[in-house]
Amino acid sequence: MSGVRSAATLRMDARRNVDRIRVAAVEVFRDQGLAVPLEEVAAVANVSKATIFNRFGGRTGLIDAVIDDVVAAELRAIIDDTRSVPGVRERIRHYVRAIRDLQYRLPAVNDVLLQEFPDSEALMALCHVAGAIHDDLVAEGHAAGVLARGFTAGDLHALTLDNALALKHGDRPSRTDYERRTAFVLAGVCPEAPPA
Amino acid sequence: MSGVRSAATLRMDARRNVDRIRVAAVEVFRDQGLAVPLEEVAAVANVSKATIFNRFGGRTGLIDAVIDDVVAAELRAIIDDTRSVPGVRERIRHYVRAIRDLQYRLPAVNDVLLQEFPDSEALMALCHVAGAIHDDLVAEGHAAGVLARGFTAGDLHALTLDNALALKHGDRPSRTDYERRTAFVLAGVCPEAPPA
DNA sequence: GGACAAGTTGACTCACCGAGTCAACTTCCT
DNA sequence: AGGAAGTTGACTCGGTGAGTCAACTTGTCC
Fold first, then answer.
1. Which SUPFAM superfamilies does the UniProt record give (chains A, B) (predicted)?
2. A154, A160, A165, A166 alpha-carbon torsion, rounded to 10°
3. Which of A16, A45, A103, B108 is most exposed, with the fewest beta carbons within 10 Å of its own?
């Protein structure tokens, strides 16, 4: 809402800077999460921090502008993939593995899930979409009798939130350790089918 | 190492303040964790922050002075209790339930487990003791075949650390939700005996 | 090819937060 | 009473990153 004008009327150097900043933001946000100092983004874009404010009006505007390239696409892909997995049990197991994998690979999703930037509408929307699938999976899971007794959508939510917090604030485990632990989580919540 | 002199030579008002501060510190640390601003402790003790520095030389000294009453006793109690539970499976299950319960009740243990104050020797010692039991339990568990295949002492450690981070940085769940989730964790790691 | 608006930027202020310090004051004790 | 021991309010300090702005640079259009 400050010096942000439409792309049509932007001078060439300004348009170039907008592009640079977007590219830099996607890269830096993906690597370091959405809370990274804007100075870092500016440095990678070869631009001064003030230019980010001129063009995007601050962190929230920048997040809205790039969130799709940073995480939304991948998050939606997971949800779509999941919905297309046949078999309730495997669908749930697939989702848990996929979301945990994404959380490990992309710290930025954790910022989304934790709602660290509630000012960004784009981000909150994402969050809501992510929440919806939990309800569906848990309902299906119980209907099919493949989920642990008493397991709620809130529990599934908490599972991802706790994991987000662990990854955000703790030491990141090796991929091997992490995947092994994913398996234990699954075993407690939606165990593999017993061998027929 | 500054104005801290032995209890014997302390003037009466000073001795009274030392006591007040200890009492306040135990209460405040238990409620709010070891990272609480020293001003809070001072306020509860009806004393100025400077007095804490005079008497204990800062947070580290204060922690060392009260850690036992804050958490060490309870932590050791859990370990002793655990060691006396007969049956490997129930021993492990008891430990996991007990430590998670303690983490919920006493935020301060989480600061200990997370090693937030590595300057305090008392605290680091505790941490080591807590680590030791993990190795033992996991070894026993595998020998008895009651643990999930591939589960390591590091995994048990990670379980408590991740939980510590979740409680420290996230919203604290209701006790009911928390305990239900404890059960899912156990189910994935050291399931109940199948009905004989 | 120059004038002026658009754009950029370095250097700034600001806010936050709690640790730790110290000179001046108060209390205890003999 | 007097002087050491003790207390304290008000201070500095450090680190961090958002957001601002006056002065400068560059693009654009005639």
1. Homeodomain-like
2. 120
3. A16
Tell me the chain B residues in contact with residue A186 when contact means C-beta distances shorter than 8 Å.
188
SS3 B110: helix
Residue A157 contacts B, CB cutoff 8 Å: no
Q: Which amino acid is at A161?
A: L
pLDDT at A195: 67
> A43-88: per-residue pLDDT in tens?
999 999 999 999 999 999 999 999 999 999 999 999 999 999 999 9
Q: Is domain B67-189 in CATH 3.40.366.10, yes or no?
A: no
Instruction: Test A187 with B148 for CB contact under 8 angstroms.
Output: yes
CA of A48, closest CA in chain B: separation in Å?
33
CA distance linking residue B160 with residue B154, whole number of Å: 10
> CA A13, C1' C10: Å apart?
19
CATH of A66-189, one of 3.40.50.300, 1.10.357.10, 3.40.30.10, 2.30.280.20: 1.10.357.10
Question: How confident is residue B1, by pLDDT bands cut at 50, 70 and 90?
Answer: very low
Q: What distances in angstroms separate CA A22 from CA A16, A59, A69, one per listed residue?
A: 10, 12, 9
| Whether B153 contacts chain A with CB within 8 A | no
Within 8 A by CB and 6+ apart from A62, the residues are A21, A25, A38, A41, A52, A56
Confidence bin at B127 (pLDDT 50/70/90)? confident
Question: Between vectors from CA B102 to CA B173 and to CA A173, what angle results, nearest 5°?
Answer: 75
Q: Is B157 part of the contact surface with chain A (CB cutoff 8 Å)?
A: no
**Contact call for B170 and A173, based on CB within 8 A:** no
pLDDT digits (tens, 9 = 90+) for B68-101: 999 999 999 999 999 999 999 999 999 999 999 9
Please name the residue whose C-alpha is nearest to the C1' of nucleotide D8.
Answer: B48
CA distance B143 to chain A (A): 19
